[in-house]
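Encode chain A's predicted structure.
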Amino acid sequence: MYLGIDFGTSGCRAVVIDAAKKTLAEARQSLPAPVHKESRISQNPQLWLQALDRLLQDLSTQISLTDIERIAIDGTSGTVLLCSHNGKPLTDALMYNDASSEQAAQTIRQQSQHSGHITMSASSGLAKAIQWSQSLKQDHFLVLNQADFISNTLAGSWGHSDEHNSLKLGYDVTNRRWPTWVETLLPAHSLPQVFAPGTVFGNICKDFRQRFGFSVGCEICVGSTDANAAFIATGANRPGDAVTSLGTTMVLKILSEHPVNDLSSGIYSHRLGDLWLVGGASNAGAGILRDFFSEQEIVELSEQMNIDQPSGLDFYPLRHKGERFPVNDPQ
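Encoded structure for chain A:
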């Protein structure tokens, strides 16, 4: 049995499958909305751990977790926090759509040797990590993405990440190393060790074994971003295959034989096996519905919609100032 956990903006989900990919158990938990304060959008990482506990508790009432051999987690891309080397959060997490790190992005533009690099956006993970490090005023910390923090917690082993989540921190996925210019902006020891998605880096820690019944041999592997996980889940695997994911925000991904990067339009590329996953993520999406309707109203109104009939409406559903794709414009 295998357990996959997905952390999104409004909630988290888990699914247990067998070797034939048959679903054996599912669970989901809602998350409190991130805190908005002007251009800063943040969330307390303790909320993730509480939701993780509830997910595992729910699953354990459906099936025994003893036979789960491996666990993988995906999380929102570019959601970053700083923690101690034993996993204690030192900051809140700046969310994927946070735009408060413009000053740090200017610093990156001065230091980076690549014009138009993905980290030059205020929404990049590197910009957020620099902003947090400047406010922390200490060098002893780890930079982790959302999925890293969850997987590292499960393993009780800290400082591990994957190539997908680390891309926006400035990791060089072509040469598979941290560039020296990134290490001039953050201490080298604060950067996680990066592996290909799906690489096992440890086993589940004693605390989770005792509380939920996992076996000693249950493996924890580095994961992916939420949009990349959604792409993989469709089974798309040939150059030209494209997937649009519509959740709180909207993401477009297309499989390519070559990487494509264009900061002005918010396009970047992840390494996926021997191919490249090219795409962009918009801040526009279905999340805006929660600003106007309750959960019950969304369900009831959705049932009344005739999806074969055009609405006659033409909206760009952007909740807050700032867009990343198809135009990269923080204003």
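The chain has a mean pLDDT of 93.
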